[in-house]
Amino acid sequence: MIAPPPRWVRRAVLAPLVVVLAVVMVPTTLMFALVVGAALTWVLPGRLRVVRVLWMAAFYIVWDAAALLALLGLWIASGFGLAARQPWYRRAHVRLARGMLAVFFWQVRWTLRLRIDVEVGAGTLPDVPLVVISRHAGPGDSFILVDRLLDLAGRAPAVVLKDTLQWDPAIDVLLHRLPSAFVTPVSRRPAGRPGARQTVHRIAEHLTADDALVLFPEGGNVTPRRRTARIDALRAAGQHDLARRAAEMGNVMAPHTGGFSAAMEGSPGAAVLVVAHTGLERLVTLKDIWRELPMDKVITLGGWIHPPGTLPADDVGRAAWLFDQWEVVDTWIAERTPAPAP
């Protein structure tokens, strides 16, 4: 993806542009959806795909613009940023994130007909910092996970994401005000800028019992090319046992272990929540999403708690432990994936 522009461009150009789009383009888009879209949809496969896509696009612009205006209001209320380090300022942003995600998923359920079921494993969340490791599959799974953490667990999420997500102004502004970070890939990272491992360690050091650091060790959606490349990389590094185990997992991709190990080094007293989910695996490309509209899907979310002090204390042990968990996730997904039709 294209690298995001400098911060001043994102604040002075992209953010106002979204608000202007919400005011000017949305009525036009809705009219197009109702008149032209409805007239064309009968020629295309699926049920009202054009209308649904245009409606969700219009809704997302309004949703993003509303979030930006609320964030602007909080910044003004803080004395134009002078009170940005006060506890109430952070709590207000967590409440805003919870409310905005609730509205977003209400619309997703209504327009795309998605349902999210949560299977809670044994154990309750201890009153310590939380490190969440989740598989990465399908569009919006990070939104779903953050929503569940805010709603069910009452935790403020600290998320480490690719820097390209800064193209979205609301996500850009909100996450820069929470203990989260955007990581630039090595291929275009300026010299001296910290990488993913250093960034994760820095955030983990400041986690409290009200926080949850969210990591996606696979680094992206599972594709055959990425899966094969990851196995080849493990073999090239001499990690033949991990490569063999990765090749035997058919539903997940071999996890990168560096970020997880850095999180545990930064917050050794943290509990770990392993998250598995299924329901969006087939949605990798825009073509996949178009084909499946309306989705009519059930997303099942499961998780297991590992209390503090139960994990290995060295990098090699943590890597093996992480692969152990990914094998459990792989089995969990296989048990909930319907057999292909004959």
UniProtKB/TrEMBL annotation:
Keywords for the protein's UniProt record, in alphabetical order: Acyltransferase, Membrane, Transferase, Transmembrane, Transmembrane helix
Transmembrane segments: 12-45, 57-84
Domain (Phospholipid/glycerol acyltransferase): residue spans on this chain: 130-280
Molecular function as annotated in GO: acyltransferase activity
Keyword Transmembrane: yes
One Pfam family per UniProt: Acyltransferase
Protein name: Acyltransferase
Source organism of the structure: Isoptericola dokdonensis DS-3
